[in-house]
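Appendix B. Chain record.
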Amino acid sequence: MKSKNLIPYDKIEKYVLIGSPVLLVTGLFWILIDKSDLIGMILFILGILSGVYLVLNRLDRILKFLKEINWKSLGLKVYYILIIIGILILINAIANKRFWRQDFTFEGRFTLSGHTHNLLKEMDSSKKDVKMIFFRSESSLTSSVDDLLKEYKARCSVISLEFVDPDKEPVRAKQYSIRSISVNPYQQQHLYGTVIILSSGLKESIDVIKMSFRNVQGRSMPYPGLKENLEKDISSALLRLSKSKKKIYFVYGHGEVDLDDQQRNGWFETKKIISDENFLIDKVYLVSEGKVPADCDLLIVGAPEKNYLEKEYDIINEYFTNGGNLLVLLEPFSEMNINLFLNKWGIKTSKKFIVDPGSSYWFQPIIPLITEYNYHKITERLKYATFFPTAAPVEMMEKKPAGVTIEPLARTTSDSWIENDLTSKKVEFNKKEDKKGPVTIMAALTKRLDNEREAKMVVIGDSDFAGNSGIKEYGNMDLFLNTLNWLTGKEEMIGIRSKPVVRREIQLTAVKLKFVLYSCVVIFPLLIIIAGVVVWLRRR
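Structure tokens predicted for this chain:
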């Protein structure tokens, strides 16, 4: 009678066979996530020991198996596998050198704008190293910022990128004065989210997280989120670090656009946008200065409400004649002795406004909507519509000075006209008094001084399109900033700025909500049950 084996070795081997790789993987994973090096090492060693036990216990079977192997066939298979691995490595190496991604979002949410692409090309050619350090907490909130910064690095060879967790490296965080944002003061939860950009001894800091408040069960609770249009903030910071600043002067003293006015018709928001584009801004009173400052790269005449003195026009004319750059903004209801200056260069305007029922902003004919542009450096990359509330016409005269080129940039449709009657409540075309369109609303003028130099001027029949109420709408900001860059000789910066993410929500009525609910919970499951019953009955 055989004695029964009290130790089930076969079962132990099965458990060891399963447990060995589990212990190895668990131990390695534990070490990598840095929870506890000691526990991870113990698990890893146990996995190795169990593997050694299996090998020693089945050594005879392993040797027998090795003898029966067709080594020639195995070697050929290994060879093919190595070829496939080599091809994959080669593809990966090419992919690292040739960065390519496809963005399927409607507004190109994950694609850098044309303006940013132009900036990064300029940085590449300058060979000036730029370092980006993103101090952030390990959170899903900042993952999209990680992707955005990686996109910058992939598109520009001079950019280096580093991610730092301030909780793990507090000394580095203190070095750059990184501060956390309190997310939940009751539970002492906090988040980090600051991008530091370094170049040539200069530093820019961008906070990416903003706090808002939500009403939860009658209590106002803090809620963290990302700032909108981060690409614009990052590109503006890079621009400030990589480019010398051009200076823009606004003529003051005649009721021109007000840079400090935060109301609807003011230019306070516009001033911030101009500054972000790496421009310096100042004001000039020509009547007291007696000249345009020597450091002026661009002079802006912003829709004056009162007439200029003839002497002031002489100052502006001298500045332009000697190679200065000029932006003239008009309004149909402002004083129009500016023609004293414009007529000298082949342009005229009037105290009339443009009406365009063929293409208007929200069905308001006195606000022309421009959807097509003539080819020019300013407009060649512009793909958005622009609108101009109560705009004055910008007409070209038959005679113009020698060496002057005038190009219309934006025109209204053939349904438009120049309205003469400013008092009538009903706006309609009058063949006898009104002038039929298309009407030019924006024109660029170039005066050749010599073989190397030229003076530039842009005349726009409206100023509100670039004010607080209009600058961030449609393509108004792109058109305005492209104009500034062209006039100041920064043509490489002309492009399309990034757009904020548009939230697309489906608004359902109560009836539609009930339909969705009943169709998902009742109708579709019931149809499946009925189909099942029918199939079952047929098979009986």
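Further analysis of this model is presented in Appendix C.
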